[in-house]
Amino acid sequence: MGQYQTIFPEHTCCAHVSGEFSVNTMNERYFACPKCQIYINAGYRWAYWQLENTQHVSLNDAVNVENLLKVGRYWNPQNEEKNDWLCKKVLPNVKEFLKSHSSHGVIYLEEDTILSEESLSYNWSEVQL
Prior knowledge:
By secondary structure, this protein is of the alpha+beta class. Helix content is about 30%, strand content about 20%. The chain has one domain. Strand 2 and strand 3 form a beta hairpin. The longest helix has 17 residues. The N terminus is likely disordered.
């Protein structure tokens, strides 16, 4: 299998290298509105584990906002997962963003897609939390 043997194929951020774990860089995750050309932080790894890993969203694909707003595990973190950044900044702003742009074809992206000069979203603006 080469130098890197994936231990958890569904977890692309973890790889096994010569008996040790190596953590690859995981990029930020965003919800983006192509009509308004803006995007918002989806919650970094929280979004990955609660939405992407559970197949509620896929990178570079349109988001079903109505269904996404019903994913309780994303919107209501367990007590051990709660923190001010996630619960007071990210989730309320993401919810408002999704509701405001639900008819605009919201998509789920990663940082490299947005920052790539070849990307259609290269000059879009980030909504600050």
